[in-house]
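User: Please predict the structure of the protein below. I'd like the answer in structure-token form so I can feed it into my own downstream comparison script.

Assistant: Understood. Taking the following sequence of 443 residues as input:
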Amino acid sequence: MHRRELCRRLGAGGLLATVGCLGDRRGQSVDTAGSVDESASEVPEDDWPTFGLDNQHTGVKEDGVGPRTDTVAWTAIGDAPTVLCSPTVYDGTVYVGSASNAVHAFDAATGEELWSHPTTSYVETAPAVVDGTVYTADADGVVYALGTDGDRLWTYETETNLHSRAVAVHDGTVVVGTAGTMPAVVSGDTDESKAGTALGLDTATGEREWAYVGPTDWFTGPAVGGGRVYLGNHDGSVVALDSATGDELWTRDADGEHAGVLAPPTYAEGTLFVGVHAAGRLVALDAASGTRRWATDLKAPNVKSSPAVDGDRVYLGATGSEATDYDGPDESTPSPTPKRTPDDEEGAGMPSVEISGSVFAISRTDGTIDWRHETDHDFRSSPAVVDDRVYIGGGDRLLTLSRADGEPQWDVPFNDFVESSPAVADGRAYIGSADGHLYCIGE
């Protein structure tokens, strides 16, 4: 049992709990409410145990070591239709879900498959590994708790769809955000989808502790910090819940009527950072009240990435296009014409849209853009910032950029697009691709 879990069970009132748990506050941040947050400094150097590294999804490991080469050390799975899931690393093992309806475990050094556990549907929710238990969920809405040996400990059926990229495990509770139930037919007034639900489940038994039903649409994966759970919704809102009870503390419109929040938000020292899809913005909210602190226009409307946050900057990927990445039009300005592809055999002369993707480093204080790396790749992956590099999946490859100025270092091409976010640990990067493989990059 980890010391933090032991301290929680002993309780805050005992002398032993008071003395024994003081050391756990080192490297942690305290928000305006005075709550102590778990931080990336608690994650062992060789681990990346959940989406975005920690429950806050900060995605930054200052003292970690990433790969210095574009060598593919090994590949795994291979026969899956796709691997959209973000891998995680815990105690020398890589955990990942796939569209072959399974959760897999591989030796991090060799790629040898240790076990594969069947699921009822495909898995795109990154496993979270806490105290020797693996928590994840499949698209049919079944939440799983597995031992690190692959044995099933419990399951919970949410009876809704579940497409969030992450779960969060905090203080004896695993939190998930569901996608509701999509209609079988998309016409008529009676075919509206069922709203998503945020759930808190007991980590030991899988019993439901609380539930929060959203007004509409899908919830993202949760971030946890300052005694609160934060989730984005595809309707463009952000909600803060009490992490112990699931009670709503505040709800805020992220940015405009047609905006959406598609990726988990990121919490850091009393501020919530949210990428807003369609509006093309990064928004910073006060975590205690939901009040907006600043918003940055990225000039790229497609934001499907969770921000990574260090002491000075926020890192984020976003995508625009020839037809949409512009300031107009107004009444006197015609719409831009998409470029044509005359060599396209099946659609010669038909319009096509050129992708224009960017990775940003943005001031955490005021939202000004420190640097922007532009490329022709789209970004559905969230960045991992380790030592002096930024690692992110873009288009059909893994890109590495200088953390200081965004200059490209090297990239590794795959055979299909990347939606998985990299896990970086012990000199290697692990990432999935829609070509059905899990890749290990490094010596």
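That's the full token string. The CA atoms of residues 215 and 236 lie 12 Å apart.
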